[in-house]
Amino acid sequence: MSRPRVGITRCSKLDDYVTSIHKAGGQPIVLEHDADPNRMIEQIDGLVLTGGADVDPARYDETPHPQTYGIDETRDAFEFELTERALATDLPVLAICRGMQLLNVAAGGDLVQDIPSQLETPVRHSVDSRPDAVAHPVRIERDSVLARLIGHRSDPETCDVNSRHHQSVRRVAPGFHVSATSPDGVVEGIEKPDAPFCIGVQWHPENFHRTGEFDSLFENFVEACKAGRRASSA
Ligand code: MN
Fold first, then answer.
1. Ligand 1: distance of its center to the CA of 97 in Å?
2. Taking the domains of the chain in order of start, what are their residue ranges?
3. Does domain 5-233 have CATH number 3.40.50.300?
4. SS3 75
């Protein structure tokens, strides 16, 4: 069967996303921020929302915290439109780091703008050594979709992850559940249980394609992209 077309929004560390999707059986298609989101959404079978700088806090009716950085109105506008269309049409979505934060805001939630200054936590969430260096564990909710997808581990309740973020999900969007948290209570995963595939993770599973820790997450996502296309072409 041919590879489903997986849209990956342009970001500065694109290679590992492309490699992970290709390894999982998808055809990666890089989506440029100045493209027409309504045209692009017609050309893909699934959407990966990638990492990057901060979402404009105006999107959730706040002014920027002093540590909020890198606001890019063109990227925000493109990704919000794509995400709203994807949610409305049940297009499979895998949202990573900034992508998970954007997904939550697009669906009506909001964010902690700066973890170090707004939350008291002993956990370091901004670890910038090797991309796949373990930063902290996360607890996976037992009855979550995420637990099913990565539940091959010896201990299904916890999993070690990398971490390169200073913002996090605060109020979870209506219709979404928390699927993973770090030991300090920071939200590390969200999902929309009634969607065919709508998963956000705060860490960077794409950095582990060499060792395969999160292969099943990408493989299940690509399967969902295939299934969606089968349904719509039937
Ligand atoms: Mn983290």
1. 9
2. 5-233
3. no
4. helix
